[in-house]
């Protein structure tokens, strides 16, 4: 599996705000926001449910990873998806850094991936309260 998720008990917009707050508590900032719904509407005139991809980055971890493996930027940042489901519930899904960074042979990167996953798991768990 390449990710893990939680059903958020609140609105789509509240989920975006809360996940951003919880990420901040763990040292992550949002580098990018891709509004998939708006993009597909503009480019293809397709109507989709609300769906955003947040590119989250912890600068300290990113620096360590880039120092160990300069091309690791191909696998960064850590993506977090907030999406509204057919039943109007909201899912927040996180990229599993261990699964993704397993592509790199450097053990120091694997160790770093475990640390990042711990932090993202804390973010997920913080959304449950």
According to CATH, the homologous superfamily is: TT1751-like domain
Oligomer: single chain
Uncertain segments are none
CATH topology assignment: TATA-Binding Protein
Overall strand count = 5
CA radius of gyration is 15 Å
CATH architecture: 2-Layer Sandwich
Q: Percentage of helical residues?
A: 40-55%
- Helix run count: 5
Coarse shape: globular
Fraction in beta strands:
25-35%
Could you give the order of the helices and strands? EHEHEHEEHH
Q: Provide mean pLDDT, rounded.
A: 96
Count of discrete structural domains:
1
Describe this structure in words.
This protein has one domain (3-127): TATA-Binding Protein. It contains five helices and five strands. The chain has helices spanning 12-25, 36-44, 59-68, 97-101, 107-127; strands at residues 3-8, 29-35, 51-57, 78-84, 90-95. The longest helix is centred in the last third of the chain and has 21 residues, at 107-127. It starts with a strand and ends with a helix. The mean pLDDT is 96.
């Amino acid at each position: 599996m390449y990710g893990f998720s939680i059903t958020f008990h609140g609105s789509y917009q509240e989920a975006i705000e809360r996940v951003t707050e919880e990420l901040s508590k763990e040292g992550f900032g949002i580098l990018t926001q891709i509004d998939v719904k708006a993009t597909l509407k503009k480019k293809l005139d397709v109507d989709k449910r609300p769906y955003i991809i947040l590119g989250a980055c912890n600068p300290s971890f990113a620096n360590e990873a880039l120092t160990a493996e300069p091309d690791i930027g191909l696998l960064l940042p850590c993506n977090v998806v907030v999406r509204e489901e057919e039943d109007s519930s909201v899912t927040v899904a996180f990229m599993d850094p261990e699964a993704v960074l397993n592509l790199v042979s450097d053990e120091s990167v694997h160790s770093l991936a475990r640390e990042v996953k711990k932090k993202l798991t804390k973010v997920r768990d913080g959304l449950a309260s």
